[in-house]
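Troubleshooting: if your tokenizer reports a length mismatch, compare your output against this known-good record of 216 residues.
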Amino acid sequence: MHGAPLVGWLLVALCAATGAYCLLQMRGEPPGPGRRIAGAEALMGWGMAAMAVPSTVLDTRPWGPPALAAVFAVAAVRALLPMVRGAGLPGHRLHHAIGALAMVYMALTMMTGTTGGHHHTGQMAPGRMAGGVPLLTGLLLVYFAVYVVRSGLRLVPMTDGALDGAGTRAVDDTGAGAGARAGAGSSGIGWSRRPELRHACRLSMGIGMFAMLLAL
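Known-good structure output:
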């Protein structure tokens, strides 16, 4: 990834943490669609982390971009196949396919090397245009901007409801010990499958994808 190294490392940390959480979530899911979705999101998080590493530190060309493009092309096909067969959640799988195809697009842009308009120092080369197709980049930016806003709006009532529920339990319990045990039990059971954390991870990946597209 070209651009400010600090931004690149922040994206690496964000995407790697998201991918790690999705791996934990996948381990806690029973075999089925939930585990496959968590695995796809873990792959997306780690792939974004690898792509976000500043090019001044690690330039994976010529082998890295083709490998990423191939991996995420397969991921896009795997996301679209159940929709063709009429199985799964169409909206969610379509989003996974769009995210995977965006990764393919960014990987193909990386394959162009210095034609993307950057020196290895991360600075824009004089008289060169930024990489990628401006119209396609703009459409993807709009899509992920809308996705981030929608995900944020869906996350707010989830976190508010969780806090309200915790407060209600604390008031209703007759003893402090019972309240502590109840709180510990609710937070310790299936924490990797809590819906607000799942949505927070998807929000983080949407923000990361938006930032990486801006860097094109």
